[in-house]
Amino acid sequence: MRLIFFCIYVSAVLGILTGCEKKSEEIRDVPSPQKYEGIIAAVGDSLTEGYGVEEEEAWPALLEKKLHDKGFPFQVINAGISGETSSGTLSRISWIMNLNPDIVILETGANDGLRGIEPSLTRKNIDESVRLLQQKGVTVVLAGMKMVRNLGSEYTQEFAGIYPAVAGKYGIPLIPFFLEGVAGEPALNQADGIHPTAEGYKIISETVCDYALKAIRIHKNKTGPK
Description:
about 230 residues, alpha/beta, 10 helices, disordered N terminus
């Protein structure tokens, strides 16, 4: 498996990600909750928001359809914001809780790495985000990320170690690599070499689905049948 999932220089990446207009923190066309067994909030950056593809082509929308097809009528809310760092994620945990999520799939940290932020700070932010969510009774799935090699082997190893360390500490499901099967594949990424195409998001939704099902089982074991 290739560790590199971006194929342009970090400076170019930063220009793209920070230039993305942040999505308004609004929930569009939210159906009546009565038909759902629970709510999953997909929290992350542009990789979750679905930069460059239609809303229904991003992995949160695809995940909801997959879950429904498998007999799990959970609502999946896309709470991704382009350009967000782990600090931004931590700062809006209270807003995320306003969605009343039963489960949060947390995908954050890639923009930290691209900015060269100290992995210790990224780990602290992710750790605290998970702690706050668990404190509220939310089941958390953590999406693992890896960073470009040109930042140096010491940095990339420390960065990659953030996710298993936090997941192990809190005993939560870990997606080892969120972009497994998509990173570094030109046919599955947009021209910027960063963001997945619609086909790439299909693969990501398959990867995430297995862990979402595990989280649903954990959630139901905690709360009991409705």
